Amino acid sequence: MSLLEIKGISKTYPIETTLWGKGKRLEAVKNVSLTLHEGTCLGLVGESGSGKSTLGKMILGLERPDQGEIFFQGKNLFQLAAKEQKELRQNLQVVFQDCYSSVNPRLSIGNIIAEPIKNYEKLTPAEEKKRVGELLEKVGLSPGNMDKYPHQLSGGQLQRVNIARAIALHPKLIVLDEAVSSLDVFVQAQILDLLADLKKEFQLAYLFITHDLQAVHYMADRLAVMYKGQIIEMLDDIKQLNQL
Ligand code: ADP
Ligand code: ADP
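That is the input. Now the predicted structure with adenosine-5'-diphosphate docked in place:
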């Protein structure tokens, strides 16, 4: 069974202009189908505006498709009971591009990372501190960072914090939406290395959304190319990328 199965999903948005007349809609995603297997990374590339983020948001349940279905661990994402939704949120995480706006600036790093854990487990303050410290170390930061605030960290450090929060509940899939794109190239390489290590250690699957072909070549096992809302190319073996 594939971890994620997308069947013919489409999403339109209203065009907010009178130029083309009322009621006209933009087709952000058109009849997209794909599968993602456990422990693998699917790269999703395409120019800006091709529909990558919209597809990511539908998988995360942040947008509802007009048509089609999405199955995660065999369950229809849009027909879940409340209990199943909670379980799903545990297994499906996201890291966005903008590391600063992804976190609450008033929370300490320790509390940011502990946020998801608190929703699922009852831990004593000492247990929580231990878990947060372990997670910080797992992403290459010293536990002493838990008392700092987001503005005291660099972009790369803060993206490590976002990754620590994403892995805190041992998810099956992380949607990485341009997760390294705004970092400088040296830091990007470090974060990609970290993501590759975590994938191996925890059998994580990634949907790796990016416009960076080099990063995708490094990270992805399979590659989907989007253009104007459609998947126009699907490479099941990333090594074929050399032939593009
Ligand atoms: P990206 O680099 O991911 O394409 P964008 O700048 O296109 O980022 O979009 C940033 C955010 O604004 C996204 O959350 C996207 O869904 C939203 N967005 C993009 N285009 C529009 C639009 N025409 N109207 C409203 N929101 C939009
Ligand atoms: P990508 O991530 O590949 O840059 P997006 O999924 O962000 O592409 O956007 C696909 C298309 O949908 C773009 O034309 C964008 O402007 C439009 N779009 C995205 N989000 C919204 C929104 N919330 N409202 C209206 N249009 C949107």
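The mean pLDDT is 92.
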